[in-house]
Structures are given as C-alpha cells and as structure tokens.
Amino acid sequence: MISENETVAVFGQFTYTSVHAQNTFTFPFAIKAVVKDGLITYFQFMEDTYASATSFRVGGEWIIQQDSDSTKNFSVSKNS
After folding, report:
1. Which residues form the domain of 43?
2. Per-residue pLDDT reduced to its tens digit, 50-67
3. Which pLDDT does position 24 carry in this prediction?
4. Considering the domain boundaries, does residue 25 fall inside one?
5. 3-state SS, residue 47
6. Assigned domain for 28 exists
7. Residue 65: which residues within 8 A CB-CB, separation 6 or more?
8. Number of domains in the chain
C-alpha cells in the first residue's frame, strides 16, 4: 500500500475458487482510492477479468478476437 496526499494505491493478489466448478486461480489486483475527511470518495478495483471468467469454465472452446483482423483470432480449449 502506498499513498500520496489523498490518493492511495494497493497492490496484491487474490486466490479464488469457483464454488460449483471447483477451479482455483490466483491473480494480481490493484486498487486506487481517494480519501477525503476519512471517507473513501473514489474507488477503482482492477483485476484479471479473463482469469476470473476461466474459473467458471468446465469445458468447450472459446474463440478469442483480439484485433479487428479476424485472421488473428485464436481458440482456447479447456486443456489449453
């Protein structure tokens, strides 16, 4: 945790387990907050949303489009 004036930044990692799929994953997170008069007036939480989504996955294939050029698409299977 670091701070400067009213702005605070927190960095760390979480380990989650999805309840039904029982997939466990660990990912980094970051929090930015602004504190005024002892109250949080701004809060931003950043996480690896892709890792969160994969924890609920039990099978199948995902087609990932990362660019406007669809020839750059790639697939991710459960075993990848």
Report:
1. 2-67
2. 878 877 888 888 888 888
3. 86
4. yes
5. strand
6. yes
7. 72, 73
8. 1
